[in-house]
Amino acid sequence: MIELENVSFVPAGASCPTLAEATLRIGQGERVGIVGPSGSGKSTLGYHLCGAHKLALAGRTDGRLAYAGRDGTDGAPIGFAGLVGQNPEAQLFCRTVYDELALALLARGEDETRCRQTAETLLGRYGFADRSQASLGSLSLGQKQLTAVLSMLAMEPRVLLLDEPTSYLDAAAADRLFAHLTELSRENGWIILVIEHDRKRLAGFADRLIALDGGRIVHDGPASAGETRDAGVSEAEDWAEALAALPPFSPPSLDAAPLVELHGLRFGYTPDAPILDGLDLAVRPGEVVALLGANGAGKSTLLRLIKGLGKPAPGRVALRAGLTAAHDVGLMFQNPEEQIFAHTVAAECGYWLENRGVEPEERLARCRAALAGFGLGDLLDRAPFSLSFGEKRRLCLAAILVAEPAVLCLDEPTTGLDAANMAAMAAEVRRQAVNGRAVLLATHEEAFAAMAATRWVTLANGRVASDRPNPWLAP
Ligand SMILES: Nc1ncnc2c1ncn2[C@@H]1O[C@H](COP(=O)(O)OP(=O)(O)OP(=O)(O)O)[C@@H](O)[C@H]1O
Ligand SMILES: [Mg+2]
Questions:
Q1: Which of 97, 141, 166, 269 to probe ligand 1 with, by most ligand atoms within 8 A of CB?
Q2: Residue 24, φ and ψ in degrees, nearest 5
Q3: pLDDT tens, 149-184?
Q4: What residue's CA is closest to ligand 1, atom 2?
Q5: Residue-range domains of the chain with CATH
Q6: Which residue pairs, CB below 8 angstroms and at least 24 apart, start in 178-182?
Q7: Which of 206, 240, 255, 406 is placed for a possible disulfide with 33 were both Cys, Cβ 3.0 to 4.6 Å?
Q8: What phi and psi values does residue 333 have, to the nearest 5 degrees?
Q9: Model confidence at 416: pLDDT above 80
Q10: Which ligand is nearest to the CA of 88?
């Protein structure tokens, strides 16, 4: 159904291909996992497999492409493939969740009754029926990602490409999604292509694995454990090893005064629906608190309140005497696209220092060092929006760390990162804690919570439902 023969792609303005001589055939009902390190060409291959290359990529494609037996030089026929990219916010257009699911169905002439039935069935299956009329602006990022995925499932394409579809989903939603995808490929013959770094999840789903490195296909075969190991893909269990290799935490001093204290925090976006409802928490220097909890539990809301982007009523965010939210709290947004605004990587990284009146020369030196530490040392003059998702993520972190805030709030810092970058991020977080900072990080990634945190705090019903030491750290 999908045929690529010697397909290469060179981005506009570049001389090297980001996809080189790819030859593949994918038939009905195949479930394909696409893996490889950050920047290895996974999304580029995905767009070509879907026939969306002309629409989604600026550059030159060579080679032969065919979709359902027809020439695909200019792309696949409309409706052939559905695609969910890495930034769910970029593909939501409508006012409500229901409107978003109905959009493609209405466009192809289905009547309102059929739209309602499809939406009800899908939303019901994911326990999301009560949000059908919710406005998209009022959803958490995980809820937005789920909406983006469901709108593609509603379209019933023959080929579905999902680029890191569970990056913002909680474990229950991710499990439901993969079980559903398996059903759709078995019963309806859909081709399902998933770019995913969680190999454990892929192993239970994919029947074929394609691994990329430097734009080349380095493995294409069955997705059994041995094969994937040969493909150079790190095991989900590998993080236990990575954990042992990380620099140790120093034991947090229990008599040190907390850097941030939350007292009886209550907050809602509308007065009658509190998201946080009497939440208490204190974080001392040297501690890293992993904030866990289902999509919509209020993790991002909490981090934003600590940064002063919203006022609890009643309740109080207290920083240690002498600290202010503007100067001493660094917030990394859940979606890097929301954080980035400058013209160059260097300007983005230096923005906070500039605001604090740091001289240009010192600013540049500090930015250079911070960016080099995240493997972005060669990209100072690049437009931040042209970076890959994982690179944007690292830039956002560098831009926060360079100003050395006392309290770090990191919202899902590892989405879009491969295993190696995730371990590097964990090492960096540990260093920050050892240097006396207090860190709060929201995450759905157990591996990251295990590697980076000293404490695991789970939010539910607007409060702290459990607060315990990281069970993966030796006592
Ligand atoms: N701007 C907003 N207006 C109204 N409601 C909102 C707004 N932002 C978030 N909410 C609601 O507040 C609740 C908590 O959202 P929040 O983004 O804090 O959750 P989260 O725990 O970070 O979720 P996720 O795991 O999906 O990131 C959700 O039910 C969400 O629908
Ligand atoms: Mg969130």
A1: 269
A2: -155, 150
A3: 999 999 999 999 999 998 899 999 999 999 999 999
A4: 138
A5: 2-237 (3.40.50.300), 242-469 (3.40.50.300)
A6: 178/204, 178/205, 180/125, 180/153, 181/31, 181/205, 182/31
A7: 206
A8: -70, 155
A9: no
A10: 1
Q: How far apart are the first and last CA of the chain?
A: 54
What does the pLDDT look like over 324-343, one tens digit per residue?
Answer: 999 999 999 999 888 999 99
Report which DSSP code applies to 135.
B
φ/ψ (deg, to 5) at 125: -60, -30
Q: pLDDT tens-digit profile of 427-464? A: 999 999 999 999 999 999 888 999 999 999 999 999 99
Q: What is the pLDDT of residues 91-105, one digit of tens each?
A: 899 999 999 999 988
Output the pLDDT for position 33: 95
Biggest CA-to-CA distance, the chain:
71
Are 309 and 372 spatial neighbours (Cβ–Cβ below 8 Å)? no
**Residue in 27, 32, 26 with CA at minimum distance from that of residue 209:** 32
DSSP one-letter code for 184 = H
Answer whether residue 140 shows pLDDT above 70. Answer: yes
Closest CA to 196 of 240, 144, 237, 236: 236
CA distance 67 to 50: 8
Cis peptide before 475 (omega within 30 of 0): no
Q: For 46-49, which contacts have Cβ atoms below 8 Å and span 24 or more sequence positions?
A: 46/83, 46/161, 46/163, 46/193, 46/195, 47/83, 47/161, 48/4, 48/7, 48/9, 48/19, 48/22, 49/2, 49/4, 49/24, 49/159, 49/161, 49/193
In angstroms, the CA 34 to CA 160 distance is: 13
| Distance from the alpha carbon of residue 298 to the mean position of ligand 1, in angstroms | 6
What residues contact residue 255 under an 8 Å CB cut-off, 6+ apart? none
